[in-house]
Amino acid sequence: MDLSGKVALLTGASGGIGRALGRRLIAARVKTVFAYGSRPDQARQLAAEAKAAGVDAIAIGGDLADRRVPARLLREASDALGGPVDLLIPNAGHAVQQDYTELDLEAWDRTFAVNLRAPFLLAQQALPGMAARGFGRVLFMSSVAAFTGGIVGADYAASKAGLHGLTHFLASRVAAHGVTVNALAPALIEDTAMLPGTASPGALPVGRFGRPEEVADLALAVLRNGYLTNQVLSLDGGGYPR
Ligand SMILES: NC(=O)c1ccc[n+]([C@@H]2O[C@H](COP(=O)([O-])OP(=O)(O)OC[C@H]3O[C@@H](n4cnc5c(N)ncnc54)[C@H](OP(=O)(O)O)[C@@H]3O)[C@@H](O)[C@H]2O)c1
User: Fold this and answer.
1) Domain ranges of the chain
2) Which of 39, 143, 206, 227 is exposed most, by the fewest CB atoms within 10 A?
3) Is residue 242 within 8 Å of 196, Cβ to Cβ?
4) Alpha-carbon dihedral angle through residues 21, 26, 28, 32, given to the nearest 10 degrees
5) CATH match of 7-235 with 3.40.50.1100
6) Catalytic choice (36, 156, 227, 240)
7) Per-residue pLDDT at 95
């Protein structure tokens, strides 16, 4: 379907996958809030590219570990772009490589706040309006670590697995109202700050890292499809199942 003129909120727009996805949204002429955490330059650059292409956009910052930020992002998105969010893409992710034996509660809580609580708060506040208007898309950014455990940490894998439960719970609540809820679960994606230094492409059957643009292409296909819902789609070079 044609997404032009829709309003999107993309978190993690300053990251590797977010930038690629942001450029796909601009090409699709989606009015977008590019949300960032600590790196405004990348998100502002996307907003400038959108405006140069004649597409309304804005960059907004906020720490998603702060429980007040999701509501503020939705409010500011609606104010700035002339309508409520149609496409919600909670893509921001927090990952610190740490052995489970050394993981402290502060680290655990921060990972869960950014990776699971913030996506839930965004969806909780955006979905009722989407359902009432008869159209909406929520696309969470999970990780293959939710299936395999991965190489980052127990908190990261568990928080991403939580997004799958959230996907299944929420999708069934809104499916009859033109709203889809899905998640993507990529493996090792290059040109991202998150790619662990210890990661090796040899660990994947395809023998290479994934490209942010490959994640972005699948994300756009999911956003365009009204019959695909309640799914977690792996994009992992054949990594899982094996
Ligand atoms: N790269 C991979 O191999 C891989 C694999 C599987 C899944 N993923 C998932 O893909 C998503 C995008 O990550 P990426 O690969 O593009 O990595 P990235 O380049 O490290 O980007 C991470 C993004 O999340 C944002 N973020 C982190 N903590 C935040 C916070 N507290 N508040 C607001 N924003 C915050 C960052 O914003 P700032 O930089 O502005 O702070 C950045 O935009 C994440 O959910 C990640 O878990 C990545």
Assistant:
1) 7-235
2) 227
3) no
4) 80
5) no
6) 156
7) 96
